[in-house]
Design goal:
Number of strands: 7
Number of helices: 5
Structural class: alpha+beta
Helix content: 25-40%
Radius of gyration: 16 Å
CATH superfamily: Gcn5-related N-acetyltransferase (GNAT)
Number of domains: 1
CATH architecture: 3-Layer(aba) Sandwich
Strand content: 25-35%
CATH topology: Aminopeptidase
Length: 175
């Protein structure tokens, strides 16, 4: 693997806050509008009793550089499923396979450590690189949510992907 993931901590806040206020990232991930404060960032990402049904990980290169975050939301122990998300925040680090490797590690954690049966996600249909990455990792296209969100006055479709414990994740391919 080209990366490792570790539980998100206070030391990961500065980079994350910068990414959360990057206009390009905000639009691509449909995160809404407006400035994200350090306090909001702390509430969203740091472990707490209020966030018992989610967990966030920092994505680190082998040299320890923090290049993004990923995590599980809406962890449902009874139904054995959770929503996954990922962000490679450093634009110069995108396209190097870090996101794919981190997503594989996150799915392995969900299946092996948490005993989940399914992980799923939504992605803007126009996020071609993201859609390609999800299928390469082993996610299956499950449907399209037409006009699912409105960004800058324009409705956009979202794509739903899912992965069952029995599906994957797929190992990385050699280039």
């Amino acid at each position: 693997m080209r990366v490792r993931i570790e539980l998100f901590s206070q030391e990961h806040l500065p980079e994350t806050l910068r990414w959360m206020n990057d206009a390009d990232i905000v639009e691509k991930l449909d995160m809404g509008e407006g400035y994200v404060s350090e306090e909001q960032c702390r509430e969203w990402f740091l472990p707490s009793p209020e966030n018992a049904y989610c967990c966030t990980f920092a994505i680190l290169t082998p040299q320890g550089k923090h290049v993004g975050n990923c995590g599980l939301l809406d962890i449902d122990p009874r139904r054995k499923k959770a929503k996954v998300w990922i962000l490679v925040g450093e634009s110069c680090e995108r396209g190097k396979g870090f996101g794919s490797d981190a997503m594989r590690l996150l799915c392995e954690y969900a299946f092996e450590e948490l005993g989940l049966h399914k992980v799923w996600l939504y992605c803007l249909a126009e996020n071609v690189a993201g859609c390609r990455m999800y299928t390469s990792v082993g996610f299956v296209h499950e449907g399209v949510m037409r006009d699912d969100t409105c960004i800058d006055g324009r409705y956009r479709d979202s794509v739903c992907y899912g992965m069952l414990r029995t599906d994957g994740p797929r190992p990385p391919t050699l280039h």
